[in-house]
Amino acid sequence: MKLVSVIVPVYNVENYIAQTIKSVLNQTYPHFELLIVNDESPDRSLEICQQFRDKRIKIISQKNRGLAGARNTGIRHAQGDYLAFLDSDDLWLPEKLARHVQHLASSPQVGVSFSRSQFIDSESQSLGIYQMPKLQDITPSHLLCRNPIGNGSAPVIRREVFEAICFQDNLHGEVENFYFDENFRQSEDIECWLRIAAETSWQIEGIPEALTLYRVNGKGLSANLFKQFDSWEQMIDKHRDHSPELLAEWENSARAYQLRYLARRAVRLKNADLAVKLTHQALATHWQIVFSEPNRTLLTLFAAYLLKLLPLSFYQECEHLALKLTGISHQLRIFRDRITYYQCAQSQ
Are 294 and 330 spatial neighbours (Cβ–Cβ below 8 Å)? Predict the structure, then answer.
């Protein structure tokens, strides 16, 4: 039975960390170690973690290095054949690890197995909608433009994948192995996934079930959107040197997709002016996204202008109805995809 190392970075999450740990301990796949990396959290997070007595739990404390640094520390301590990451405010369904272990065992060419994700709010209530990414035949261009993995709590990754992208540096007073680039405080996920796709032969593949519960923070500041975009541009600058042919072909369209994504974030934050501005920037950067993904692009533009023109209370009623219909569509698609996926698995 393969050992899975579950790595949970912890920083300032006292309201969520107990529920996150419980979602790991409730996994139907029992053969795992849980590495909790306390990244010098200033609140009661460490104290809460120490209340759990399960022998599979190991707590590692370090000076603050950020999310990428905490993940790197977890990887260095991991003993597992597979490494799974769970952000400390997200949750897993009980069958999460079992499904990914099965997927990786049956697909030796796959190095990164990820699941779809369901959105939850700050009270851990379902928002009824899901991340619905492309699951197969994923290329570096897909990762650059749309990041089908979706979030850092979705993938389970073979140890060999990280060995293939490992690099050494001296950032903290000694030479260490690095996997996630600690120069990034945002966009560290996509930077790592893109390196895996561009520099190794391992395939990245998803399974149809929504096994990750991804928490949406409704209290985010619009200023964070600009920081996220700056970090994304930093990632582009790095890969322009490492993958010049990829960037030459896809940089403009990828930037447009990123601006459109940030526009949707601005809509969720109810910042109408910023949502309209970002949508216009996306279209000005690469207007062809209207034809490559017409539904998502036009819906983003429509939502931004509705938010700007309608009274907020009326807009929220429209939004609630739209989310409900979208959720029903997502659930039907997941159901169909699950049937197809397991029928194919049984026939192999």
Answer: no
